[in-house]
Design brief:
globular; single chain; about 210 residues; mainly alpha
């Protein structure tokens, strides 16, 4: 088989690489108003869930379909999640700049809370893209699934931390790694999420958003 053939392992890898770069670009553009970030990431996962299942049918068309279909609920989720992230970050920042008793203990507690929030956050927008549910139902079940699948949830946290490790050893990658990771990190996490979600999907599903986890 010709190594440069579209169906060769190298050809499939390069095709997937181009898709990931395109998804990074689309997501960055759609996140620019900031308030639309939730819809942008839901659309990203809408495409990635199809891609991992080899059920994608046009990256750009699928992305904007996911953006449109999930816009209202994803935006509501973002308006809940974003302030929580900001509050935890500001608390940690203030503790780092202001001397106080037991600050180290409080920092550790905040790190644990932050890790838990990230762990649950790894499920929120993928679940919005995959399942029909209310906003609060998505938040509740994202928490439940993150605990029920704790080993996989921890692996996803490690995946999220991997760019930091790469930057420490290869600081020159700072010029392109953040852009690439916008979609690459979610893609790696989606490989895990699909295995979790498929436990709650009807066997006849074609990968469209449907049902809800019990």
């Amino acid at each position: 088989m010709n190594i440069f053939s579209y169906n060769s392992p190298f050809g499939r890898f390069m095709n997937r690489l181009v898709d990931v770069i395109l998804l990074s670009l689309l997501t960055i553009i759609c996140c620019l108003p900031i308030i639309t970030a939730g819809a942008a990431f839901s659309a990203l996962y809408y495409v990635l869930l199809k891609m991992v299942r080899d059920n994608d049918n046009g990256i750009i068309r699928s992305y904007f379909k996911g953006f449109k279909d999930n816009f209202l609920k994803a935006t509501a989720l973002w308006l809940i999640v974003a302030p929580v992230i900001v509050i935890v970050y500001l608390d940690f920042y203030l503790l780092s700049t202001v001397a106080m008793d037991y600050s180290d203990v409080v920092k550790i507690l905040l790190l644990i809370i932050g890790a838990l929030l990230l762990m649950v956050g790894n499920y929120i927008f993928p679940m919005q893209a995959q399942f029909e549910n209310t906003v609060w139902g998505t938040l509740k079940k994202a928490f439940i699934l993150s605990i029920m699948n704790l080993p996989k949830s921890l692996i996803m946290l490690l995946i999220m931390a991997s760019p930091i490790v790469i930057l420490l050893f290869f600081p020159e990658t700072v010029y392109f790694l953040p852009f690439f990771c916008i979609a690459a990190i979610p893609y790696l996490k989606t490989e895990i999420l699909v295995r979790i979600f498929d436990q709650y999907m009807p066997k006849e599903t074609d990968g469209e958003a449907s049902g809800e986890p019990e």
